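Homework help board

Subject: predicted structure for assignment chain

Our instructor gave us this sequence and asked us to write out the predicted structure in token form, then describe one feature. I got the tokens but I'm not sure how to describe them. Can anyone check?
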Amino acid sequence: MRLTMCGIELVGHVFNRVGYVWGRAYKHHASSEPGKGYLDLPREKRIEILLHYMVLMTKQHLYLLERIRDSWLQREGEGWLGRYRRWFGVKELLQVERILESAGKFFSHEFGSKPGPFLDLRAAYTALLNDLSNGGESWKQRFSELEDAGSLRP
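My token output:
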């Protein structure tokens, strides 16, 4: 298969983003399976490693946003999350959302016509983020939704 220059750039851009995060995920996971590289692992295991890491990343990001919520809400009002997205997001998407979207596209061939667990995890994260941004606390009781969405099991 041959790619055009544009195709090479596109594949490199997507792989670098997902590839970098997968490398971080693998480093986090490596203590349980040392010595195995990306290509040494079965595809499902590669996806599982990244997915588990992304579940941890979504949880951590929600907790961090909770820590700043009150001060941002006081300073920016009800639209604090929109302002935060404009300042720290890319096209108003937070890093977690961008990575999940990229991973969803990168591994889309694995899940056929279904959205797949990365996009399911993004939807669950967004729902909890919206609850958190509105000052609610129920997002904490719904944390298991992240685990459920970030599972390879149906």
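Reply (TA_rk): Your tokens look well-formed. For the description, you could write something like this. The longest helix spans residues 43-76. That's the kind of observation they're looking for.
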